[in-house]
Amino acid sequence: MDFFSSCVPDQVSLYYYVVVAVCVIGALYINDMFSKMGSYRSYGNKQLISYGYDNHNGPSLWKNLFEAAKGHKQSPINLLTPCAIAVPSELHPLKFSEQFHHTPYEMKMYNSGLNAVLYAKWSGLMRPSISGGPLEQEVYNFLNVRFRWGPDNHEGSEHMVDTKRYAVEMQVAFMRNGDNPKCDLLDAALSGDLLMLSYVFMVTPIDNPYLEPIIQALKSLKFPMSCALLCPFPLRLLTPLFSKNYFYYEGSLTFPPCTEGVKWIVQPEPLLISSRQVNKFRKLGACNCAPIMSNSRPVQMANGREIFYYD
């Protein structure tokens, strides 16, 4: 073998070098992607300045970065029953559509790097919707479900009910006349068409069986931007339906850009969740590879807003 032929790699060596090169390029791309995610968050076609829930990018700093966060109708708030304006619910009962009882053909969970989000698709154009009550004749169609939690079982919910915080808060997003399921939550907020339906969870020793499909899916969401399919189930199993005994007020998104004009319906009667189930949320990975220990915003000033209680 002459000098030149000895310098030419055989097929195995060439394959090895190609694989190494691809891995290096891929690693550089992923590193660049995550470094950008540390600087920006994307919502649909929009990019926002980075935010998070740590000391260097948490809620206490959002007013310096997002103009809307300085507003006087921010969420969440402390919902005080004695201070709320009582409204007889029998005059305008809250109405949940029949689609809450229908099983979607697809259901999946997604780790956004800051949150666990549930999406679902139903056959045809019909999706679960809400109307009546303070919404009157307006119809709001389902978008997605988001969960909020904290570092321990004594905090995690964003809203407080009569000065009490709970371990978890589940926020179900709806869009007014939203026939396009691809519209995101930020689009709905910017257009003033967003409704948030909120449930709080209290820790008990026993697992909540209706939450278990969600909890099982979380095992596949250890990394940001990961996704997991669920065995579909009717939304009513996750979101108990009610027509009275709830709070209503106008507030904002609880995360940047903290857009105001969001309608909130909060069910004050806590649902149940076990400590084991709450801990599964805390094992989700953030974009900085650390676990998401908290993703809730502290309560904001009510600033004289009218808070209604439909009894």
From TrEMBL:
Gene3D superfamilies in alphabetical order: Alpha carbonic anhydrase (3.10.200.10)
One annotated Gene Ontology cellular component of this protein: cytoplasm
Database matches in SUPFAM superfamilies: Carbonic anhydrase
Pfam family, one: Carb_anhydrase
Domain of life, source organism: Eukaryota
Keyword Transcription regulation: no
InterPro entries: CA_dom, CA_dom_sf, Carbonic_anhydrase_a-class
Domain Alpha-carbonic anhydrase, first and last residues per copy: 49-311
Keyword annotations: Membrane, Transmembrane, Transmembrane helix
Membrane-spanning ranges: 14-31
GO molecular function annotation: carbonate dehydratase activity; zinc ion binding
Secretion signal, residue range per the UniProt entry: none
Record PANTHER family: CARBONIC ANHYDRASE (PTHR18952), CARBONIC ANHYDRASE 13-RELATED (PTHR18952:SF227)
Family: Belongs to the alpha-carbonic anhydrase family.
Name recorded for this polypeptide: Alpha-carbonic anhydrase domain-containing protein
Organism field: Dendroctonus ponderosae
Name of the gene this protein is made from: 109534335
